[in-house]
Amino acid sequence: MAAEPTTAHSPTRSDVSESFTLRIRRYDPESGEAPYWVEHTIELEPHRSVLEGILQAKGRFDGSIGIRCSCKAAICGSCGVRVNGQPGLACHTHLDRAKATSRDGVIEIEPMGNMPVIKDLIVDMDAVHWKKVQRVTPWLINKTPIPEREYIVDRESMVDVTQSMACIQCGACVSDCLAMEVDPLFIGPAALAKSYRFVGDPRDAEQRERLMDLAEDPHGIYDCTHCFKCIEACPKGVAPMNQIMRLRRRATGDHHIVDRNNGERHEAAFVTLIKNYGLLWEAELLPRSYGGNSWFGKFAPPAGLELASSLPAITKAVMRRKVTIMGAVKPHKIPPADLKQVQAIYDEIEGRDKRIEYNLYISGRDEDNEDSPQERVEATGDAKSEDNA
Ligand code: SF4
Ligand code: SF4
Ligand code: FES
């Protein structure tokens, strides 16, 4: 069972048509003209989709509006657009909901971001999205010898990869990925979620090689900045950022991959600083990320080089009073009683025999259930023993 899509809601069912005004961004790169906006007013029942609205505008007013679609049922992934600035599926966004979230009562529709526009609302998925998916070897690499009969996989492993298998390759997560805006070479949320589908599959012969590749790539798993945008954008509950975190936990916790991007050391530095002080101590983060988790880390030559290259940014921050020298150098600490509580969380997690991950995607969301997520998941029998800390 898939999680409830982010754009879903319970619209008031009405068979009475209403007027909705759509503001559509038009752009034809071949024309040499700059992008512009047009407005069309359509008549449809409020629970109908934005896609139906666009198609009506196309049929009634201007057949040249470019939109890609097929299934009209949130299955094929072809109608990705931005509605009022939020990426999603046009066929999965109700008109009344879109109007309610608009700035001025007009539903604004534009193409997805981070991908070049082919025409109007159609973006070039091949140029970005599919290229990145191909980058992660999106197929199972068989172990040998291949079993003569069916390869039975245990239930827990399948539950683990089901969430990434729900992806319909719509590109909504790619559209608003902040890391990709800064680094267009970042492999990105959709492709990395796809990668987890095979890394988490016990039939795959090259899990370690895949993880090594993604950890060592400067545009790989450690390029994600945890902005949550891809989780908000995904209409199928894939939560790509969570899959990226799973890839990291597998790379570090299971395969002990210490990468050249300092991703593993950087995470370890974060975890240790919070454990020791209860708060992040930025002045220690950089040296520990390069030189390891000890006081001597400060003297690691790469840490010095990185510090030197960051000096202009640090000077700017000090001049603008975003940081003070004393504030950066002095450890940030919380009251001892609070620190004890933080450390108790560490003790609890680190004291477990095995790491535990609850697959909330499979158990679904039950807003009426007052129980804790743990109780709900255990009640459905979908608790999964894996890597979580
Ligand atoms: S969480 Fe990571 S992958 Fe997802 S949108 Fe943000 S930077 Fe991109
Ligand atoms: S992860 Fe979600 S948003 Fe991204 S391509 Fe797949 S279905 Fe679309
Ligand atoms: S038309 Fe297929 S997902 Fe929207």
UniProtKB/TrEMBL annotation:
Domain of life: Bacteria
Gene Ontology MF annotations: 2 iron, 2 sulfur cluster binding; 3 iron, 4 sulfur cluster binding; 4 iron, 4 sulfur cluster binding; electron transfer activity; metal ion binding; succinate dehydrogenase (quinone) activity
Pfam families listed in its UniProt record: Fer2_3, Fer4_8
Cofactor: [3Fe-4S] cluster; [4Fe-4S] cluster; [2Fe-2S] cluster
Pathway it works in: Carbohydrate metabolism; tricarboxylic acid cycle
UniProt protein name: Fumarate reductase iron-sulfur subunit
Database matches in InterPro entries: 2Fe-2S_ferredoxin-like_sf, 2Fe-2S_ferredoxin-type, 2Fe2S_fd_BS, 4Fe4S_Fe-S-bd, 4Fe4S_Fe_S_CS, Beta-grasp_dom_sf, Helical_ferredxn, SDH/FRD_Iron-Sulfur
Annotated organism of origin: Baekduia soli
Annotated GO biological process: respiratory electron transport chain; tricarboxylic acid cycle
EC number(s) on file: 1.3.5.1
